[in-house]
Design a protein that fits this description.
The complex is a heterodimer of chains A (141) and B (788). Helix content of chain A is 22%, strand content 32%. With 141 residues, chain A is of the alpha+beta class. Chain A has a domain at 43-127: OB fold (Dihydrolipoamide Acetyltransferase, E2P) (Beta Barrel). In chain A, a hairpin with a 5-residue loop joins strand 3 and strand 4. The termini of chain A are far apart. Among the domains of chain B are: 1-145 and 153-160, Four Helix Bundle (Hemerythrin (Met), subunit A), CATH 1.20.120; 162-341, no CATH class; 619-724, no CATH class. In chain B, helix 2 packs parallel to helix 6 (116-136), helix 7 (167-196) packs antiparallel against helix 8 (201-232) and helix 9 (242-267) packs antiparallel against helix 10 (271-293). With 788 residues, chain B is α+β, with helices and mostly antiparallel strands. The relative contact order of chain B is 0.07. In chain B, strands 3, 4, 5, 6, 7 and 8 form a six-stranded antiparallel β-sheet that branches. In chain B, strands 13, 14, 15, 16, 17 and 18 form a six-stranded antiparallel β-sheet that branches. Classes of the chains: A alpha+beta (141), B alpha+beta (788). At the A-B interface, helix 1, strand 1, strand 2, strand 6 and strand 7 of A face helix 12, strand 1, helix 14 and strand 8 of B. Strand 1 (41-45) of chain A pairs antiparallel with strand 1 (411-413) of chain B, so a sheet runs across the interface.
């Protein structure tokens, strides 16, 4: 007697535990990414005006409007100037960044505090005219 | 020199291209071209070697008439650093990268058999491209005077960036480029495999190269981190900076790649995955170098810089590489035989799938996050994204979103993005790493699995309890400690089991163990570290912090002219004394203040002392003034008017400082003096203080003066105002377990190298005798490696 062997592999797509775990991993990444974006988003702007009016955490790029010095609280402070000439006082809680005096442009990452009237910078990028310098900056907050 | 150097580079490019084209002709059946291919490869290496040698020679001989030498070195560099300055800039780094690649090519010729023309055709083309990039930023260009435009020879160079004056930073680039160069090999093999329709053989040959590339890339990441920790003074070793992230991504994808390759090698599954991953890894290597060098991130990262000219070429090359290889893969996609993977969840197959997914997800998160400035720079996309995100989000850092996008449109993500998203995903990978190594390929006996997990589970629980008692910071850290110990345990169990079959099989498990140790170090030094504290120590005084007593002895200058803070640290527990000497100084060349930390490495933790500032002594009784300066000391307002010098006798001179003193509304003009008497018959002179009397019975002395700078230092005697001592301001923190980060990485790299050795021998065995017998002793090993 001959019997025809039949392939009993189920047709169509069956959801296996493997798929579920895989989907869970992807979902987790999306969720974590959402929360991460919330706290880490920093729009870039070259206008002091924009940074001041919005009040959110931004990356403000500009030029040195004054030399830097330490204020009464021991924070490093200086004036940042943009292309239109607007100035804002920036207060940075860490020591004077490397190459500050030679900066061609400065990017301050932080937000404008309306109550104090200053831009509180969490981090600063100092751009110098020379090329390919591994200027490893001070810590991120 | 310019002509000679440029000719050398051009001949290197030409040789590599000739090799590539000849090999292509061989694939078409023209066997006569094979010899051109081989000799072209040899010639390319020789040309590249000559470029490396001549460029290094220019640096060693301090030939500043070459602009590249001027830009990156100076006469104060020692020999070692002069050599290393060669790869401090763009073209130097490209040539080192190409150099390693060309050395690899020589071995590829001998070892690839039938695949040789295919693999080398692609590989040599890549090397030609690298040398071409170098040509665009030709390092042999002579120095031209900015004002006249004529060739000139400056007396001294600009100098090497101070932060690169460090042995760790010197070896980091070459090691990194070894990793990058080796990762081109599986890429070339993959494309060759697609070309030849050989969907299995390439894996056997490419696996050792992939393991080598993976190990070196991991080692390079470690070196970069260790350098940051030891030199920069911010206390960390990983900053989630775009340059770091973009090198991490190919490491993640190459980890996924080598696991997929092992799977394919074992039973032929995951063929399409290995091809995709091999292509993806090299595209990511290229993307990493693109992000670093093209300047797209110049406003978003300190490591990036604007490099004219390279941007267009690199963008084109990157797109060409990615698009062409994807098309190639798509063309052969249906042709690749698919072997279904195991149905069971508890099998290595399934766990490999999950692990590759996990790693790719982390790589995607890091890659997309790092690329946000680039993505949002595409016209339209940035503004749209900002509007969408603005409408969806409410920030929780105290500021709120408006719903309009900024005019610029671009945005970046700061480091907190990665430190929030990556650790939980990493935890998933750790869980996979706990169970995965214990599973069988297709299926596992659940009881045996649980038995194998017994002791590691127990160890994990004990360690977690210990961590909990030891002041655990948060759930994630605790999870990492527990699961990390678990992973360490299970992989140790597997190592012990496999050792019976010979030590060479433990490579993978050892690498897992290394990773577990690394994670323990990361969690310990971050999650259990004491937060950094800013400490102000007066000279001669002490401050206590974190179980140590810090005494500031004084400030002095080192022979190199750097400011040194001499601090004695005594550990309260065992009275161990350590002399910390952090440096803080102003570097003229960089125009910046540089801080070098002092690190005390103990058994369980590191004590990290980073100098913030030195405040010199402030004597409130004294004043340092130039002409017309006015100071207030106590009740007196003092203005320095000028010097008054007169000679009383032959051997005597008097130098006086005319000062105006205002006291209680009354003005007085006084002159404290210094009488200089030349002693008979000797060169020396005695200085005698002739103070002037102040109202109220005090006197004022001229302590020091500099006629050249028209500067005086005067002190009021008798007031008894406080003298603020000199102070050292340092930031101290403890980093428990940070040694595990370094040790863990090294163990991982050793694991990778052992695996590489094993797979090399197996690869040979595959061609020659079928299954290779792995060596049992060192003698066996040497015989096997030398090609017995």
């Amino acid at each position: 007697m001959t019997t025809a062997t039949q392939d009993f592999k189920p047709r169509g797509f069956m959801l296996k535990p493997l798929h579920m775990i895989g989907l869970a991993i992807i979902l987790m990444a999306i969720v974590m990414g959402y929360f991460g974006l919330q706290s880490a988003f920093r729009p870039y702007t070259t206008r002091v005006n924009e940074a001041l009016t919005s009040g959110r955490s931004v990356q403000l790029a500009g030029f040195l409007g004054s030399t830097g010095e330490y204020d009464a609280n021991g924070n490093f402070t200086f004036k940042l100037q943009d292309e239109t000439g607007d100035m804002v006082t920036v207060v940075y809680s860490k020591p004077r960044p490397a190459n500050f005096e030679q900066a061609v442009s400065v990017v301050a990452i932080g937000h404008y505090d309306a109550t104090q009237g200053v831009f509180l910078a969490d981090d600063m990028l100092v751009k110098c005219p020379s090329k390919y310098q591994e200027q490893a900056e001070t810590a991120l907050s | 020199m310019y002509l000679f150097g440029t000719l050398l580079i051009l001949s290197g490019i030409a040789a590599a291209l000739i090799a590539s084209v000849s090999y292509m002709l061989v694939t078409r059946g023209n066997t006569g071209a094979l010899i051109y291919g081989r000799y072209g490869t040899h010639a390319a290496l020789i040309a590249c070697l000559l470029v490396v040698v001549s460029l290094t020679a220019l640096f060693v001989m301090q030939r500043y008439e070459i602009k590249y030498v001027y830009d990156y070195s100076s006469s104060e560099l020692s020999f070692g650093y002069r050599v290393a300055a060669m790869w401090a800039g763009q073209p130097g780094s490209f040539v080192v990268w190409a150099f390693w690649g060309l050395i690899a090519a020589q071995f590829l010729i001998r070892r690839t058999r039938h695949a040789e023309p295919y693999v080398l055709s692609i590989f040599m083309f890549i090397q030609a491209a690298l040398l071409f990039f170098m040509l665009i930023r030709n390092p042999f260009v002579p120095f031209t005077d900015a004002s006249t435009g004529a060739f000139a020879t400056p007396a001294d160079g600009k100098g090497l960036n101070e932060l690169l004056h460090n042995p760790w930073m010197i070896i980091h680039p070459p090691i990194l480029f070894v990793g990058y160069a080796l990762l081109a090999v599986p890429f070339a093999f993959a494309l060759a495999g697609l070309w030849r329709r050989d969907y299995d053989g390439w894996v056997h040959q490419a696996l050792p190269w992939t393991l080598g590339g993976w190990s070196f890339l991991g080692l390079a990441l470690l070196l970069g981190g260790y350098w940051a920790y030891e030199t920069l003074g911010w206390g960390g070793y990983w900053g989630w900076d775009p340059v770091e992230n973009s090198a991490l991504v190919p490491w993640l994808t190459s980890t996924a790649l080598l696991h997929a390759m092992i799977t394919q090698r074992t039973h032929g599954g995951m063929r399409r995955a290995t091809f995709s991953l091999a292509i993806l890894t090299y595209v990511m290597v290229f993307y990493a170098t693109f992000l670093t060098r093209s300047g797209v991130l110049s406003s978003f990262s300190v490591h990036s810089f604007v490099e004219e000219g390279l941007k267009m070429v690199m963008t084109t090359a990157l797109f060409a590489c990615a698009i062409l290889s994807t098309i190639f893969l798509a063309w052969r996609w249906r042709d690749i035989p698919v072997r279904p993977l195991s149905d069971k969840l508890l099998s290595r197959d399934s766990f490999m799938v999950l692990m590759i997914l996990g790693l790719l997800v982390i790589a995607a998160v890091v890659s997309i996050g790092t690329s946000m400035p680039v993505i949002s720079a595409i016209p339209g996309i940035g503004h749209t994204l900002q509007n969408v995100l603005g409408a969806a989000f409410e920030l929780d850092d105290g500021t709120t979103y408006g719903s309009e996008a900024f005019t610029d449109g671009r945005f970046g993500l700061v480091g907190s993005f990665y430190s929030t998203t990556v650790p939980p995903l990493g935890l998933v990978v750790v869980v996979l790493m706990i169970i995965g190594p214990l599973l069988g390929w297709r299926d596992t006996n659940p009881r045996r699995l649980l038995t194998a997990m017994r002791w590691p589970a127990l160890a994990a629980v004990i360690v977690s309890c210990g961590a909990l008692l030891l002041n655990a910071r948060d759930l994630l850290s605790l999870a990492y400690v527990g699961l990390g110990t678990f992973a360490l345990g299970t992989n140790l169990v597997m190592i012990i089991k496999t050792l019976k079959g010979g030590w060479m099989r433990i490579g993978g498990y050892l690498a897992h163990l290394g990773l577990a140790v690394l994670l323990a170090g990361v969690v310990g030094s971050a999650g259990y570290a004491a937060p950094e504290q800013r400490v102000v120590i007066p000279q001669g005084g002490s401050i206590s912090a974190y179980g140590y007593e810090f005494t500031f002895n004084g400030y002095r200058l080192t022979p190199e002219g750097k400011g040194l803070l001499d601090i004695t640290v005594i550990k309260n527990d065992n009275n161990q004394v350590f002399n910390a000497k952090p440096l803080i100084y102003f570097n003229e060349r960089m125009g910046a203040t540089v801080a070098t930390p002092s690190i005390k490495t103990e058994l369980l933790q590191d004590l990290y002392i980073s100098p913030a500032e030195y405040m010199p002594q402030i004597d409130q009784n004294a004043a340092d003034m130039v002409v017309n300066d006015q100071r207030t000391i106590g009740p007196y307002e003092i203005t320095f008017l000028g010097f008054d010098a007169s000679q009383a006798h032959e051997n005597e001179a008097e130098v006086g400082a005319r000062i105006k003193v205002v006291h209680e509304g009354q003005e007085y003009t006084l002159m404290p003096k210094v009488r200089i008497t030349a002693t008979e018959g000797s060169e020396e002179a005695t200085f005698e203080d002739v103070p002037a009397l102040l109202p109220n019975g005090n006197s004022i002395s001229l302590v020091n003066f500099d006629p050249m700078q028209r500067r005086v230092y005067v002190r009021v005697n008798g007031l008894g105002l406080p003298v603020d001592p000199a102070k050292a301001v340092v930031t101290v923190s403890t980093k428990p377990g940070i040694q595990l980060v370094w040790i863990g990485t090294i163990i991982g790299v050793i694991g990778g190298l052992i695996a590489m050795l094993r797979r090399t021998l197996e690869g040979r065995g595959y061609w020659e005798k079928g299954r290779a017998r792995l060596p049992r002793s060192v003698g066996d090993l040497i015989r096997a490696v030398s090609g017995d």
